[in-house]
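#lab-general

N.A. 3:47 PM
ok so I finally got the sequence cleaned up, no stray characters, all 467 residues accounted for. can someone with queue access submit it? mine expired

B.Y. 3:52 PM
send it over

N.A. 3:53 PM
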Amino acid sequence: MIFKDITKLVNEKDLTLYKSFIFLFIAFILCFIAISNIVSFFVSYITKKEGELDEKTKELYFNSRHNELTKLPNSSVMNEAALSHENYSVLMLNVDNVEILRTTYGKEIVEVVFLEIANLLERNITSNAMLYHMSEEEFAIIINNPKDNQEMMICSQIKAYFEHTPLCIEDFKIHVQFSMGIGIHKEDVHSKLNVFSKANIALVEAKHRAKGLILIYNDEMSRSGSYTQLAKNIAILQNDLENESLTPFYQPIVDTYTQEIVKYEVLARIKDESGFISPHMFMEAAEVSGLQTAVTKQIIQKSFKYFASKDIAFSINITKHVLIAKYLPQFLELKTKAHKIKPQNVTLEILEDIAIEDNEEMIEQINHLHSLGYVIAIDDFGVESSNISKLSDLEADFIKIDGTFIKDIDTNKKHLHIVESLVFMAKKLDMQIVAEFVHSQSVYDVVKELGIDYCQGYYFSEPKENI
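B.Y. 4:20 PM
back already:
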C-alpha cells in the first residue's frame, strides 16, 4: 500500500515536471518566435533605412552632377569627359538677353524655353558630340575627334535654326539668340591653355563685341592683356578643381566689443607660380568658366573636413548657381552628419542680390535651410538697398554690410550716413550686423560707435591657410 502511494506520488511529480517542461518549451518557442520577429523587424527596418539612404545618396550624387531643370550633365561631368579625350573641341553657347526674356514672359515660361532649347540641342547634335548644361543660360558641347570645320558648322546650324524658328510656348513665339565661343584642340607646346579655357575666352570676346557672334579662339585674344591673365586663371582653377587642390583660407569674425573670435569665414583661393591669385581675379575666372558650383561644393567638402574635430563656427559663401541646382540642403545634411558638425555652427552667406531676387523657390530654399538649423547671413548688404523691403520675407540672422561703405567710413560722410541707415534698418529687422573691411583703428572706432555687432578685416587678421 505504501509502495503504491509512493509510486503514485512519483508519477504525479513526473507528470508535474513533464507539464512544466512542456510549458517551458512552449514559452521558449513563443519567446524565440517573438525575438525572431523583433530581430526580423529591426533587420527589415535597418535594410529599409539603408536603402533609403542609398537612394538619397544616389539622388544627391545625380543632382550634383546634372542641371536641376534639364537633367543634362553639368560642368563636373564635362571636366571628367574632357580628361578622357585626347582630341576634342569645346563649344560654349550662351543664351543672350535672358533677363529680358524673364521680364517679358515670366520665370515659368523661361524655364520651358530652356527645356525646349535643351531638347532641340540634344536631339540635333552629331553622334560624336555631347551636350552639357553649365549654368542657367550657358550650354556646352564637347566634340570628340572633330571633323574638318565641324565646330563652325555645328554652331552655324544652331544659330540659323534658332534665328529662323521661334519657340512656340503657350501663346508666345519666342526667338532665341546665342553668343558662341569655340576652342579647338591643337598640339601647341607654347600654349598652356586647355580647350575649355580657349572656348570660354572666345565666348567672353563674342559677348564683349556684340551679341549673337560666333568666335573661334585665337592667340590674339589671350595676348590682349586681361584675357591673358583670365585665361591662365581659368586654367589654374579648372586644374585645382580636377585635382581637388582648391585652397580654403580662413578669416576671423570678431565680437566688436570684446574682440573675441566668434567664427571664421571660409574663402576659396587658387595659386599660380607667383603666389595666390587675388580674390577678384579668382571670382572672375569662376564666373566666366561657369565653375562657381564646383568651387562651392569643393570648399564645403574641405571646410567641413577641416572643422570636423573642432567645435568652431564658420561661414561659407553660397552662389546663385548652387541654389538653382537645388542640391544644397541634401548635400549639407550628408556632410554635417558625416563630419559630426552642428548645423548652427555653419553660416551660409547669401549675396544680397540673390536674397532679393524675385524668385520664390530661392527664398523658400534659403528659409528651409534656416529651418534645418543653419545660420543665414546676407552678404554685401547695401548694394541693392533700394529693394531692402524684400528682405523681410527672408529668415536671415545676420547681415554683412558691404565693405565699400565700411573701409572709408571714418572719412567719407556719405558712406557714414548710408551705414547708419543700414544699421537702423537691420536692427528693425532683428538682424545682427557684421562690418567687413575693418582695416584700421579709426574705422573700428566708428563701427563700434554705430553699434555694429561684429567686425571682419585686416585690422584683426588677414585670411590665413590655418587657424
